[in-house]
Design a protein that fits this description.
With 325 residues, the chain is an alpha/beta fold. It has ten helices and 13 strands. Helix 4 crosses helix 10 and helix 8 crosses helix 9.
Length: 325
């Protein structure tokens, strides 16, 4: 059965899958919507150093390749891998990742060499997840979309006609570093008042932990307190919503997306987030066309599905030949 290997590398863990396409399974022309045929996880082990992390990725990919050959009857046709940090996708180089400690790792070539020369696509983790949300998730059918995950920080992926724009230097979509509160909280990027210092899940969790006097409290606890009417929680939540709306209006003024897809931990609050956020954006726009603002649909499978899409994109869609078993 024709399939590809998908790897989503995080700072703590790696998610992987063997990905088919539903048109492959039904005898049609690939690639159709991806199907996760096998899933696996492994610790990244970043405490062992960058060289060990790279070796773990290569070993994991080799194990997946062997599994696919045994259970699906044919070797994988391609590999897609999503990694954090700065990525040179054209050259296949993981240029820098602070949480993994690596610089200028030629990951595409290393994987291809380990897996007998099969084609490999390398992508940025957020843009890869955005690719999946745009093609097969919450942004499906939108010719222009913006994917914004609200987690420890805030990142973004700019979707245009089924692809994700990387920018001239691989830094497109960094909405978390739009300054929404000039002169405000210092950001590790060197600026003051960046969006992610006010509206990320980490920022909301920190503000609520301080207000509640509970160092273990997080953004989910704040959301629960909002629903129960706690005035401090309501204030913190509204400040985050207002900052996020300011950032999103800047982005939609520049990019004019049809759909904004919000993911990450903060989006798990559901309408506790989305109802006031839609209202706040609507109050701020003047000439701009209001976008649809919707929750992400794919959860933590987005990275693997996106990596699978990157891999399928490397292949000839008219080639339905199965390699002999």
């Amino acid at each position: 059965m024709r399939h590809v290997i998908a790897l989503d590398v995080g700072g703590t863990g790696m998610k992987a899958a063997l990905v088919g396409a539903d048109t492959v399974l039904s005898g049609g022309t690939p690639p159709g919507p991806p199907v996760l045929l096998h899933q696996a996880r492994r610790a990244t082990g970043r405490e062992r150093g960058p060289e060990a992390v790279v070796e773990t990725i290569l070993d994991f990919a080799a194990e997946l390749s062997a599994y696919g050959e045994r259970h699906l009857g044919t070797p994988a046709s391609a590999v897609g891998v999503a990694v954090p940090g700065i990525v040179d996708a054209d050259r296949g180089i993981a240029a820098y990742a602070a949480n993994l400690g690596w610089r200028d790792v030629p990951l595409r070539d290393l994987l291809s060499d380990r897996l007998s020369g099969i084609p490999v696509a390398l992508g940025h983790d957020v843009r890869t997840g955005g690719l999946a949300e745009g093609r097969i998730g919450a942004g499906r059918g939108a010719d222009r979309f913006l994917f914004v995950p609200l987690g420890t920080g805030i990142a973004g992926a700019i979707g245009i006609d089924g692809r994700v724009e990387a920018g001239a230097h691989g830094n497109a979509g960094e909405i978390g570093h739009i300054v929404v509160r000039p002169g405000g909280i210092p950001c590790p990027c060197g600026q003051h008042g960046c969006l992610e210092r006010y509206a990320s899940a980490a920022a909301v969790g920190q503000a609520w932990a301080e207000a509640a006097g509970d160092p273990e409290a997080d953004a989910a606890d704040c959301a629960k307190a909002v629903m129960s009417g706690d005035p401090n929680a309501v204030r913190i939540w509204q400040e985050a919503v207002d900052a996020l709306a300011d950032g999103l209006v800047t982005a939609l003024t520049l990019l004019d997306p049809r759909t904004i897809v919000i993911g990450g931990g903060l989006a798990e609050a559901g309408e506790t987030l989305f109802t006031p956020l839609r209202d706040a954006v609507r109050r701020r726009i003047t000439f701009q066309k209001p976008p649809s603002i919707v929750p992400a649909a794919l959860g933590d499978t987005a990275g693997c599905l996106g990596a699978g899409l990157l891999a399928w994109d490397l292949l000839d869609p008219t080639d339905t030949t199965e390699e002999p078993t």
